[in-house]
Write a sequence for this structure.
């Protein structure tokens, strides 16, 4: 089990690796598409990286509900 | 019970020639941006396409298949009469009776071959190649002509920015023949029918829809093992691959696959999608022909090919270029 802070740091690492987002720009209220300029295919790459890193499953129909960094963090917390 | 005789064919098959037909009309991203809410940067960053070819009314599936098939036959050096199997792979034939295979063969002067159509979506060409190689090895054929041809613009909503920017038209063909020395490895094929709605023409709609995220995830996670299996069954590894020519669906999928395979720097990666868009069953032979014509791929090069698409279906093999 990772803490909320650990999860946010982990998500930020994935965002940097997959989409080149600066870790300093990552906070829970940020929208992936509107604030961090992550497109729909990069969201898929982020989902698969999150699955590998945190051992959670993110089906395609759940992926559409994850709009912000905070949504991702709470999804991971609930499902890990 | 009477026992039946069976026959044994050639030890293997090899590629003898390739050919392509690209429709005359070139459609740039800027042209599409005039009629829909999109732009060159958006298209290039999502799918990596700069332009594509859209067939005009006279560039029918049969005409394009005949044009590509004729070029492949000429490149092979075979007389049309030497061909005894013709397979036309396509997913965009709107009136499926009759199939195109017999007419395409007749138009090319091939005399009474086994001829049929094969629909395995964008994997159709690699499925057809697998079937043809096995037919040659079983003694059912000696030389085969395999053609992938599509007019995806006939089944695409050309006002929908999600699909109209991706799908395109064209034909690619390959002639293969019996050979003591195998030049085409075993096909590794399969399907994931639980995802049959991911790329489909839904009931009541004239056009194709695609669940882009689901297909992207499937292509970038599930198909790597198919590529490794195709290499393993042919007895080669990533370091032996001179040319990597997967189905040209999306440049980002191509780059992701290439990265996961750990191909050497020297491997030429087909990026025909930049100029041709996604031409489904035609994309693999179109991409190989483009690399041969540009000189980037050479005779004797070992190529890894993979088709994947609606079904969902997938098929890959290793082959040596003529």
């Amino acid at each position: 089990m990772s803490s909320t802070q650990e999860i946010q740091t982990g998500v930020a690492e994935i965002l940097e690796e997959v989409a080149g987002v600066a870790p300093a720009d990552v906070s829970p209220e940020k929208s992936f598409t509107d604030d961090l300029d992550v497109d729909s295919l990069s969201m898929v790459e982020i989902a698969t990286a999150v699955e590998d890193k945190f051992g959670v499953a993110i089906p395609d129909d759940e992926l559409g509900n994850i709009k912000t960094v905070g949504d991702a963090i709470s999804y991971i917390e609930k499902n890990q | 019970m009477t026992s039946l005789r069976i026959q044994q064919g050639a030890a293997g098959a090899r590629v003898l020639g390739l050919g392509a037909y690209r429709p005359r009309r070139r459609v740039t991203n800027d042209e599409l941006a005039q009629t829909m809410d999109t732009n060159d940067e958006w298209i290039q960053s999502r799918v990596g396409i700069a332009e594509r070819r859209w067939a005009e009314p006279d560039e029918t599936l049969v005409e394009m298949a005949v044009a590509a098939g004729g070029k492949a036959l000429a490149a092979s050096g075979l007389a049309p009469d030497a061909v005894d199997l013709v397979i036309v792979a396509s997913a965009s034939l709107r009136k499926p009776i009759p199939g195109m295979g017999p007419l395409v063969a007749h138009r090319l002067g091939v005399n009474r071959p086994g001829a049929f159509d094969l629909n395995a979506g964008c994997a159709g060409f690699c499925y057809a190649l697998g079937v043809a190689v096995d037919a040659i090895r079983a003694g059912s054929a000696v030389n085969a002509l395999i053609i992938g041809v599509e007019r995806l613009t006939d089944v695409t909503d050309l006002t929908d920015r999600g699909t109209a920017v991706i799908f395109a038209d064209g034909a690619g063909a390959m002639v293969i023949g019996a050979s003591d020395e195998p030049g085409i490895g075993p096909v590794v094929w399969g399907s994931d029918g639980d995802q049959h709605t991911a790329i489909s023409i839904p009931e009541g709609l004239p056009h194709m829809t695609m669940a882009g995220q689901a297909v992207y995830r499937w292509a970038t996670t599930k198909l790597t093992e198919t590529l490794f299996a195709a290499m393993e069954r042919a007895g080669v590894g990533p370091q032996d691959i001179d040319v990597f020519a997967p189905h040209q669906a999306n440049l980002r999928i191509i780059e992701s696959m290439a990265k996961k395979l750990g191909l050497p720097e020297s491997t030429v990666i087909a990026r025909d999608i930049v100029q041709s868009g996604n031409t489904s069953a035609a994309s693999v032979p179109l991409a190989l022909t483009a690399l041969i014509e540009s000189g980037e791929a050479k005779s004797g090069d070992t190529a890894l090919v993979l088709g994947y698409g609606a079904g969902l279906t997938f098929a890959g093999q290793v082959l040596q270029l003529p």
